Structure formats: structure tokens, C-alpha cells
Amino acid sequence: xxxxxxxxxxxxxxxxxxxxxxxxxxxxxxxxxxxxxxxxxxxxxxxxxxxxxxxxxxxxxxxxxxxxxxxxxxxxxxxxxxxxxxxxxxxxxxxxxxxxxxxxxxxxxxxxxxxxxxxxxxxxxxxxxxxxxxxxxxxxxxxxxxxxxxxxxxxxxxxxxxxxxx
Length: 166
Prior knowledge:
This protein has helices at 2-13, 29-36, 68-75, 84-91, 136-143, and strands at 19-21, 43-51, 54-61, 65-66, 79-81, 109-112, 120-123, 130-132, 134-135, 146-148, 151-152. The chain is α/β, with parallel strands linked by helices. The strands form three sheets. Strands 2, 3, 5, 6, 7, 9 and 10 form a seven-stranded mixed sheet that branches. It has a two-stranded antiparallel ribbon with strand order 1-8. A two-stranded antiparallel ribbon has the order 4-11. It has one domain (2-157): YbaK/aminoacyl-tRNA synthetase-associated domain (YbaK protein). It contains five helices and eleven strands.
């Protein structure tokens, strides 16, 4: 059902966007990047977060990591990831296929500024084998997203094994 809800949503609001389908799974950033021929950062991963009683979606570049202090500053509290069942219930999409299109529930959408490193990004399209190529600014406009700074891009992440990584 999820891919169909995204297809219907995009047909109504952005009929020029084509849904790409892969014969191989695209559940992880690495799988999606390989399947759609882009670098991992261009995969626009959609995180389902709970902050207090609020549930929201945060779309970030695939190789970025959440920064807890930035998340607290942006959303006013500590964020936790939703469990898989809650993700499906509130988004209508399975983990690995979550995107800000064709949602089962009206959720606030935020785009992390890390996405702005790319002119075009590739978010999932409601299933673990689908995606869409979209201009970064159009993704934000189409979803009514607000821009926030909640992630550390890969160049700002500590190197595993270094003292700052502990």
C-alpha cells in the first residue's frame, strides 16, 4: 500500500516526478546509493522521531549522523527513534522505505541543512525497493519542510578509534 500512496501523492502534487524501482533492496543508505548510482550523502534518509509527545520526520543526507545537542536545540527536547511498528502506523511506510510523501498521518517534516550540499537528492518512495530523484529545494517546498540544523555531516564525525570518538 505504501508505494501506492506515494505514487498517488506525487501524481497529484508533482506529476513530473518519476518513481524509480530497483530489483535489489534499498533499505540501507549503502544499498540505495548503489542501486540508484549516487553517493551515500545524496540519499535523503527520512528519520521518524519522537520528541516528548510530538512525532516528526527529519530528512537528512544519508551519511550524516544525528547530533543530540543540535536536536535538543532545534526541537526543544531529547529525540528518540520510533520503533518499526510505530513507523508503519504513523507514516504508512515500512522502515527502509520511509519518505515524506504519501503519509498516513499528517506529520511535520523538517529537512536538515546537511541536504543543501546537493542540488539533487534521492529519498525513498514508500517501499524498500523504490525512490525518487528530486531537487533538494523542491523536496523541502513540496513537503512544507522547515530547515533545521540537527546533524553532523561526515567530515564533522569523529574517526572510529580516535579519542574524540569515545
